[in-house]
Amino acid sequence: xxxxxxxxxxxxxxxxxxxxxxxxxxxxxxxxxxxxxxxxxxxxxxxxxxxxxxxxxxxxxxxxxxxxxxxxxxxxxxxxxxxxxxxxxxxxxxxxxxxxxxxxxxxxxxxxxxxxxxxxxxxxxxxxxxxxxxxxxxxxxxxxxxxxxxxxxxxxxxxxxxxxxxxxxxxxxxxxxxxxxxxxxxxxxxxxxxxxxxxxxxxxxxxxxxxxxxxxxxxxxxxxxxxxxxxxxxxxxxxxxxxxxxxxxxxxxxxxxxxxxxxxxxxxxxxxxxxxxxxxxxxxxxxxxxxxxxxxxxxxxxxxxxxxxxxxxxxxxxxxxxxxxxxxxxxxxxx
Amino acid sequence: xxxxxxxxxxxxxxxxxxxxxxxxxxxxxxxxxxxxxxxxxxxxxxxxxxxxxxxxxxxxxxxxxxxxxxxxxxxxxxxxxxxxxxxxxxxxxxxxxxxxxxxxxxxxxxxxxxxxxxxxxxxxxxxxxxxxxxxxxxxxxxxxxxxxxxxxxxxxxxxxxxxxxxxxxxxxxxxxxxxxxxxxxxxxxxxxxxxxxxxxxxxxxxxxxxxxxxxxxxxxxxxxxxxxxxxxxxxxxxxxxxxxxxxxxxxx
Lengths: 335, 252
Hints:
The complex is a heterodimer. The two termini of chain A are about 30 Å apart. Chain A is globular and about 70 Å long. Chain A has helices at about 1-25, 35-40, 45-50, 55-90, 100-115, 125-140, 145-170, 175-185, 195-215, 215-220, 225-230, 235-255, 265-275, 280-305, 310-330. In chain A, helix 10 (about 215-220) crosses helix 14 (about 280-305). Chain A is built from 15 helices and no strands. Chain A is mainly α. By secondary structure, chain B is α/β, with parallel strands linked by helices. Chain B has a six-stranded mixed beta sheet, with helices on both faces. A four-stranded antiparallel beta sheet of chain B has the order 2-1-4-5, with helices on one face. In chain B, strands 11-12 form a two-stranded antiparallel ribbon. Chains A and B meet through helix 10 and helix 11 of A and helix 2 of B.
């Protein structure tokens, strides 16, 4: 039994590497395997570059590589953020967008796309408004006596408010900017390039790394506030730290990739079903499985038809039935 | 390690707790008894630092409790809640390890020493070999023992137990109080406990503190202070005291 679990953990940890290698090969433009390897190694062996068709380098380094790295980073970020917030809010049904982040980001992106035009990157405004939405939720709920319930309710209210504002912007938008906005809102890994990655990756990697270091502390924070305080936890400070990190990585991921739902809910849930509740295992395994999940979803989304289905739609289409199945299999429904 | 109370007043809507002066001596077991709403749990949580007490009212070895940071207090004093409910089903081993939180730095993991501490404690409470079981699948009696074990893993001089025997059958009630007694007798711990069962409180505690309407109605060695008049005034029903073979029984 213990060996089986160890093998399973190992498989989850190596799955992003295997999928990454396979995904590099996939794409509408077929590059033979030897040529793909040569293209990948051509920066180190310049002689190989000469024999390769001109477009290979642009496809591999300009399109596929940033897209796959983004999928790995965003999948990890959303899953780690979801797992951390679920521990903090003591509820496995909490998702990474619970604090109004996605609607804040959506509104920010809409403002930028509609009023500044599609040439101006919407990521900056999306990131800023994601943070504004979360700060708004935190400040409104700060004075409540039951902070968790209050946080969740305020998250719903602030989300509704930003969704209304988003609708207002959409009402005034031109059809051209509306199309760009919808494309962003549905979550898409095809658009961003190295420049977007360079901006968001440090936030994502830094935040995920710190949450990984905090993984055992998340077990302590998942106890009731009274129990955690009796164990010497600085509740206010540590809760703030986890919320800030989870917000930062989700906002950084959402700003570049758009709104990709359900990963932060499903991946930690799957991991808990496989290895138990201990966050020392749940958080790093969620990072690995989340990366694989989004990579796989993106592979399917871009291989299924001659045109690309936005991956955000795809994660919802496979995520929701999967989640219903998980809930039915669970012996207990947590609410 | 002892606890001193000096003029503690704790107010919340519809209730006031007023305790002029009290001392909980080190290495003894003190039981807080009284009717529902008398303020037992409130006093216990004030003493455990879980409710905000005014400065200069509760002292740990003459240090003002209000001035001791949470992290430091958790190395002196462990709190055992009535029940632990969680959406996450940790194993007993994982659950016990949480007791090491005051000693594990924020960005670190518990060490193998912490893990062996948890295993030893599990054996001490009579649950050796149960570390892999899921906490939520244990019986309520076993769960109380695990909660006490987590407090022991915390390695503190003082243990504060909030109604540890509520809803337990006589066997598990005895097991839990035997364990609390052993902690005082074998390990020199200071134990504070709230109890509803007066027979057990008289039998196990070194000292009783009787509370009524947020005030101390009586305090002292159980056999010396428990009288029918005191019990009737506290619980407002007729109560009789029977003594048989050196033990005291309350009959109502």
